Amino acid sequence: MNLQWFPGHMAKTRRMITENMKLVDAVVELLDARLPLSSRNPEIDRIVGSKPRVLVLNKADMADHNATEVWKNWFNEKGYAVIAVDSQSGRGFSALEPAIRRVMKEKLERERARGIQRSSIRLMVVGIPNVGKSSFINRLAGRGAARTGDRPGITTAKQWIRIAGKYELLDTPGILWPKFEDPEVAKRIAFTGGIRDEIMDLEELSCELLGFLSAHYADMLKARYKLEDGQLKESSYDLLMQIGKKRGCIVSGGNIDTLRAASLVLDDFRSVRIGTITLEMPE
Ligand SMILES: Nc1nc2c(ncn2[C@@H]2O[C@H](COP(=O)(O)OP(=O)(O)OP(=O)(O)O)[C@@H](O)[C@H]2O)c(=O)[nH]1
Ligand SMILES: [Mg+2]
């Protein structure tokens, strides 16, 4: 896959995030619960430095619940403060404040000892495109303060959102990193819609997804598209053709419209119509 995923505006955003780091008390790093490691920007440790940080596994409603528990334990063992949430329903949000207070403990104690009364905590929310940063902020604020959308690149500039007496939140545009060391990482991000579909080969992408699903979530795949066991053993491209045929993705002359079938499969995955699926597990 040949991708142009690091356009100029991402380099600009990276600079903005670095510059604004000194203004905030802590960082909320949003990860996609379906791909916690692949959705982690490898540059983030350097950018965040020693700032207190809470990891948030967002979109937990779309992920395999058991897998999310495994991931939470994994991050905990590595010494991270981590919570899992669903920014659409608000599930899991009650764990946020205790986690923030935990990572900021020393600073808050120091302030208290000096008699400082703080009115709010400043948080920067960072993460890859489309991971749900703006939705997370809106849920926290209890209002539609930030624009959201079901494709990457919705937020284009920084925006402060204030929650009286509690938080000041800095929403940031999503950023990727200049080079994917591992093509599997790029693929997983693309499955979830973190990379603009316009620059992807959607047939190839959906074949890759079908390959993963038949290996790891065969029952869900079979149920969704009413497939037989034997069909799962076929090549991913044959599978795509089968699905296209069943779903009436036909062009004039009776040929199967594989591009339409590919979009349909990706759309089904992204809308959780195939099921709650996690794309990777700890090593
Ligand atoms: N099911 C589910 N959908 C979510 C969740 N969080 C966000 N979404 C959806 O994911 C899409 C992206 O959300 P945004 O909040 O715009 O993501 P963002 O990280 O701000 O994206 P950029 O500004 O483009 O970087 C939207 O369609 C949201 O409705 C969640 O926890 N669960
Ligand atoms: Mg946004």
Automatic annotation (TrEMBL):
One of its GO terms (biological process) is translation. It holds the Pfam family MMR_HSR1. Keywords: Cytoplasm, GTP-binding, Nucleotide-binding. GO terms for cellular component: cytoplasm. InterPro entries: G_CP_dom, GTP-bd, GTP-bd_ortho_bundle_sf, GTP-bd_ribosome_bgen, GTPase_MTG1, P-loop_NTPase. The keyword GTP-binding applies. It is found in: Cytoplasm. It comes from the Bacteria. SUPFAM superfamilies: P-loop containing nucleoside triphosphate hydrolases (SSF52540). One of its GO terms (molecular function) is GTP binding. Signal peptide: none annotated. Residues 13-178 form the CP-type G domain. Its main location: cytoplasm. The keyword GTP-binding applies. GTP binds at residues 58-61, 130-135, 174. Belongs to the TRAFAC class YlqF/YawG GTPase family. MTG1 subfamily. Required for a late step of 50S ribosomal subunit assembly. Has GTPase activity. PANTHER family: MITOCHONDRIAL RIBOSOME-ASSOCIATED GTPASE 1. This is Ribosome biogenesis GTPase A. It comes from Ructibacterium gallinarum.
